[in-house]
Amino acid sequence: MTEAQLVQRATGRLRTFNQAGILAAADVHVALRLGALGGETSEDVLFATALAVRAVRSGSVCLDLHRLRDVTVDEESDVDVDALPWPELGDVLAGLRASPLVVGGDRGPLRPLRLVDTDEGELLYLDRYFLQERTIRHVLDSRDLTHPPVDAEAVRALLGTLFHGESGEPTAAPDRQRIAAALAATQWTAVIAGGPGTGKTHTVARILAMFVRQLGPSIRIGLAAPTGKAAARLQESVTEQSDHLGLPGDLKAMTLHRLLGWQRGSKSRFRHNASNRLPYDVIVIDETSMVSLTMMSRLLEAVRADTRLILVGDPDQLTSVDAGAVLADLVARPVRRLNNPQLDALVADDLDAQDDPNEAALSAMERGRLASGVVRLSRGRRFGGAIAELAVAVRDGRSDEVMALLEGDHEQLSFHAPTDLSALHEDILGTASSVTTAARAGDCARALAGLERHRLLCAHRQGPFGVQNWARQAMEWVGTASGVFLDPATWYAGQPLLVTANDHEARIYNGDTGVVVDVGDGSLMAAFQRGAEPLLVHPNVLSSVQTVYAMTIHRSQGSQYDTVSVMLPAQASSLLTRELLYTAITRARKHVRIIGTEDAVRAGVERQVLRASGLRRTIRP
Q: pTM value?
């Protein structure tokens, strides 16, 4: 029986919610199959099961049973969600507590659902995600039970050497970067959170230098990130500082899949696991906000108990496309008052002083997070002024302040109606002209730098506000201005490129952007930024690449542009969220242009991605 045929057999609430567009065919299919296998016929239980499947499909780890009705529908739908036949919470809970799908039954060991009690209410998990979350919680808690041996005097001296101002004197207190290094020295697991330009990789490089000087140059260091693009950027950042800091010159960053040893077709999936641990003494994971629950559980079970683990990222950015928001959960976990006297002694001055006018004193909340292994860098060094104010206002959900900033007189910000495209048109043509001129002259560095002058970002891939539509429009504008028909299927000098799949042999990674350049005699090569010297490959080698005059905000993570134009969808779009706006805004160095309506802006600021998870809750026994 096909999935469609099985769904046709659905009755009652499952059928109603499927026809309303709340439940997909896959949600109904899984619920009915589990019910048939486990002998469960309760409509309330089957409905909750389908919603649990939907929750994972939507990015949550579990279903928050106290938020059953917090669902979204397609922006074009006219369904009244509140008018649907929702069950009573008490009936659902009673059914689940007695269900063979939760407590087991006489049909065998099948127990596909887990009902978990927390201080904030009950959560319903699919068994796989319950076990993965339990692994993460267990590993992190066990790593917090002990502390690595620390030579406090040596570490204090290293902190003074590595964190200093231009005059050579130690930086003024409180220096959160120095605190982060002390945290990494005194705990097996350290979480370093911070927005763009707060110095996360600057701090990581100095932490690595501290370990090299403290533990010797033979220590084994693993650098990784969720994507090839993020790994390449991490490696570039560390390499740029390696000579100055005395780091090994052979440090290589890789994707998490490569770090763990992905084995295609293998039952164990990864070569490194709980039975074959990773060999590193120090592991740094960058862009942790993009790491899913499944990948984090695989990583943690493969990390040795005596390995320093440093998780780095921005918890306010868009999260993994798969289930989970692990970094945000770890930052927001209930504060655990762990005893770490070594840390207290190393950063006493930073905890108690406020000598630097650019740094606010540590709040009681920050001190609590620090005791739990989390430090948040706050001083933005990449951009400031109105862009920083806008990003913070969006992050904190203050829609009135956001609108006041956008409608105010700020050189760094502009707000345009969807019909006012003159400034966007000018930036697209100006960027294309500078890139094309440099590319035709064979100046790879200047062509690549030109790509970062401006980028058009969209929430959607398709539709009137999507990437496909606006990339086509931008190409028409560029072609009309140059008097040349631009064919995306034919290579041409100045063509902006976006890589959509990893090619480790060619050192090209998913998310990389490059440009086609004329290297002489009409020969064309694709140039990609790789440190000081651009990487050149023949375009025909690029099996997965597309012309990019616009990209999704998701794709833009980890990139920076002088000016960013953000094309907002209609306010009803479920993709329009606080995290999406924050991510788009923080891609800009000098100017943010928002194109949309006030209703869309307010809807985005007020709609937060609420991925249900037990990691940030206190689980009852």
A: 0.85
